[in-house]
Recover the amino acids of this structure.
């Protein structure tokens, strides 16, 4: 766990000290952020299973309209990972990224590989994230439609959570979002509940 926290702290050091206007950056629309800027989020997520609390952090930087860089870190109670790599935006509504890093677990090969795909605009978005290593794999897909500046709804499908509707509330003019997702978990055939608190920068 200590090594996992060190990984996440190392990721936090990638955040620049210069101020960033939060209103220009949303997790649903990364290409809408100002070019040559750095943006991202820190999210606390809770899943209704033992050890279901986790901390996630993502940092992205756009060098120009097409190329950029991202880093992603995640810490659970007994596990953590961090990976980073280039991003590519062939169009204003599409962005993909792939990276390599490490996972904090007792395995012979601690390498971790991951990536993401984002597609969307100011109202609608789709985000798909996947990563894998010797300890296993994880993936997540969520969609969102912004009905207003403070309310959005979509669908969440996540490997350890299941699938279900996702509702989010964003504080007006504040980079803080609370979201909930009641899900059906296909492995057990029982319901689960996921919620998160995200701070954007």
């Amino acid at each position: 766990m200590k090594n996992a926290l060190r990984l996440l702290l190392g990721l936090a050091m990638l955040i620049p000290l210069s101020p960033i206007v939060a209103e220009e950056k949303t997790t649903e629309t990364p290409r809408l952020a100002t070019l040559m800027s750095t943006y991202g989020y820190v999210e606390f997520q809770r899943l209704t299973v033992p050890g279901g609390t986790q901390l996630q952090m993502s940092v992205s930087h756009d060098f120009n309209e097409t190329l950029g860089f991202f880093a992603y870190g995640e810490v659970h109670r007994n596990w953590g990972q961090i990976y980073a790599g280039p991003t590519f935006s062939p169009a204003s509504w599409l962005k993909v990224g792939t990276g390599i890093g490490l996972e904090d677990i007792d395995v012979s090969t601690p390498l971790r590989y991951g990536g993401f795909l984002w597609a969307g605009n100011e109202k609608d978005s789709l985000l798909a994230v996947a990563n894998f290593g010797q300890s296993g794999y994880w993936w997540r897909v969520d969609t969102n439609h912004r009905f207003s500046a403070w309310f959005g709804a979509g669908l969440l499908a996540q490997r350890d959570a299941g699938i279900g509707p996702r509702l989010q509330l964003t504080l007006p003019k504040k980079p803080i979002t609370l979201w909930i997702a009641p899900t059906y978990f296909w492995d057990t055939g029982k319901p689960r509940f996921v919620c998160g608190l995200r701070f954007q920068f």
Q: What stands out?
A: The domain at 2-200 is CATH 2.40.160.40 (Porin).
